[in-house]
Specification:
Layout (H helix, E strand, L loop, with lengths): L10 H17 L9 H6 L8 E6 L6 H4 L7 E6 L6 H13 L4 E7 L3 H12 L7 H17 L5 H19 L1 H8 L4 E7 L6 E7 L4
Parallel strand pairs: 1-2, 1-3, 3-4
Antiparallel strand pairs: 4-5
């Protein structure tokens, strides 16, 4: 992704651009950039998103809306509880390695149903049916880590799960880890509050201040 002067956008600049959009969304003054016919035509030949956004599938977490962005800005991947499998890893790597996105965002949120269901399953020794069981199994390490740390608040469980997802992404993806080590990409974890629309930084990897 290129910046205004034609240089490659830095991870910090990409994060600042993303968070500026979130501030507009919070204040009720979104600009709805890059959502017109001219933008549609301009990006038809190729895409150059400035961020890969891997978030929860929750219907209240629409990335382009809460960050006030438009067509071609974000390469979005979503699963329940932002749980990760090979397809997710391949998609993130595609955004980083082939599209050159300088930022990867793991986006969690309060009142996450996947985390709540996993807390219940761990506490009661039960699980869900069908493939929902797989989601719970993948969130379980985060819940166990939060319990071991003595946390009780839902917000702490959410933050631990976001941190765990960021760590797991870097552990499992050599492509992403090497891009971070080289300074081409940073990975950040954000937690979104449903009531006020604010996204808060939870953790960063490879972000130069």
């Amino acid at each position: 992704m290129r910046g205004m002067n034609g240089d490659r956008m830095t991870p910090r600049a990409a994060l600042d651009l993303l968070m500026a959009g979130n501030q507009r969304f919070i204040s009720g003054g979104p600009e709805h950039p890059n959502q017109d016919a001219a933008r549609r035509a301009a990006i038809a030949p190729e895409q150059n998103p400035f961020a890969v956004l891997f978030g929860c599938s929750d219907s209240r977490l629409a990335a382009e809306i809460i960050f006030d962005r438009g067509l071609g800005d974000l390469f979005v991947i979503r699963t329940a509880g932002h749980v990760m499998g090979p397809e997710v890893l391949g998609s993130v790597e595609y955004g980083v390695d082939l599209l050159g996105a300088p930022l990867v965002v793991v986006l969690g949120h309060d009142a996450c149903g996947a985390v709540a269901a996993t807390r219940t399953a761990v506490a009661e020794g039960t699980s869900a049916g069908g493939y929902v069981r797989d989601v719970i199994e993948k969130v379980t390490p985060s819940v166990l880590a939060a319990r071991a740390a003595g946390y009780t608040d839902n917000s702490d469980y959410i933050d631990v799960h976001i941190q765990h997802t960021v760590d797991l992404l870097l552990e499992r993806s050599r492509v992403v880890a090497e891009a971070v080590a080289a300074g081409r990409t940073a990975v950040v974890g954000l937690s979104y509050r449903l009531a006020d629309g604010a996204a808060h930084l939870v953790t960063t990897r490879g972000l130069d201040d």
